[in-house]
Amino acid sequence: MKFLFLHAAFVLLSVVSLAYIEKLSREAKVFIREKSIAQEVSIKVFGEGGEEWKVEGRELVSLGKEIHLLGVLLRSASGYVVKADSITFFRNKNKGELKGGVEIRGEALFVKTDRAFIDFNRNLLYGDGKVMVWRGRNFVEGKGFKAYLNPLRVIIGRVKTKHEV
């Protein structure tokens, strides 16, 4: 009799445990994101005006709609070069976020900041952090900037300047 009672209790406990596990597995939300890694990458990006950018990087990690590129060098068809530690591309927006030691160099311009955003469609680089800009022998420091690259137009917020003649 004890044997039948223990056996029935074990079967009942097994059924309850399986039902509980099934309930937990239905409630659990597990997201699987595809991840791809590539090294020594070169990408071409086109904007509205046909401006072409060549983006080079040491390592690329692709996660869903975002692409993360490390050791970044961007070159525009109009001669601008942008360096950064990393960029995150937002594929569906044709935009990116540059992070770490961002430098923008052109024929008559040098901009340095820690974080910037790029809109490939509008050929626009912008940011809201501390920025330093050199144009020839003139130096401008500020907080926040917008740099339209074609034609060149730079807007800097909270400006401190130093001019040499």
Write up what this structure looks like.
With about 160 residues, this protein is α+β, with helices and mostly antiparallel strands. The protein has a single domain (about 35-160), classed as Sandwich (lipopolysaccharide transport protein A fold), CATH 2.60.450. Helices cover about 15% and strands about 60% of the residues. The protein is built from 1 helix and 10 strands, in the order αββββββββββ. The protein has one helix at about 1-25, and strands at about 35-45, 50-65, 65-75, 80-90, 95-105, 110-120, 125-135, 140-150, 150-155, 160. Strands 1, 2, 3, 4, 5, 6, 7, 8, 9 and 10 form a 10-stranded antiparallel sheet that branches. A hairpin with a 2-residue loop joins strand 8 and strand 9. The longest helix has 26 residues, at about 1-25. The chain is elongated.
Topology of this protein?
Blueprint: H1 2-27, E1 35-46, E2 52-63, E3 66-76, E4 81-90, E5 95-106, E6 109-119, E7 124-135, E8 138-149, E9 152-156, E10 160-162
Antiparallel strand pairs: 1-2, 2-3, 3-4, 4-5, 5-6, 6-7, 7-8, 8-9, 8-10
